[in-house]
Amino acid sequence: MNKSKIKQQLRRGFFALAIVGALLTLPKAQAQPIPASGSTTDRECVIENVTNGPNTITTLKIKTEATGTLTGTLCGTERDVGFPDGSVTINSTGVFTGTVAGRSGTAVLTAVGEAGRGSPGGRFGGVGAAVSWVMDQGTGGLAGVHGQGTFGTLVNFAEGPGCDENHQDPCITPDYYDFTFTLLYSGQIQFAP
Q1: Of 2.40.350.10, 3.30.450.40, 2.60.40.420, 2.130.10.10, which CATH number belongs to 34-191?
Q2: How much is the pTM?
Q3: What is the pLDDT of residues 122-146, one digit of tens each?
């Protein structure tokens, strides 16, 4: 091989390496958020009511059926604090099993917020309700999921047949619950690239 051919081969090799290096330094493409909307129907069992001064702390087991962008079932626990003025703070968390924008798996869904006076049963969707949700910690097809949004309009609220000491988890015994309600939700979902 002569010197000019060696130089040409080296130039091509260095040029190819420079292109690969430049491509590796480019920022990764960010996935675009997907709008999320639909409805959830909750069945809840009151496990415990504890009075702490003028406030009531309620622990509930919850089962939520979701339709729309989120389609599946959530099983979890909720802790509410009711205040003398009728307002309630809400904190719930559970494992969602189903599909999100066509991807199947599990993820943790947390809801936090407040409901004002006038809420049926002191639940979501009442006067002045402001309840947000976050979805993360996905597995399977939901690995890398990050979602957030709000619960909005209360579509319905009804009392159920009741829970007892043998039937306190609507995820295990779905025909036993203290009350049920349906909410609309909206937000956005994004998957890590």
Answers
A1: 2.40.350.10
A2: 0.78
A3: 444 444 568 899 999 999 999 999 9
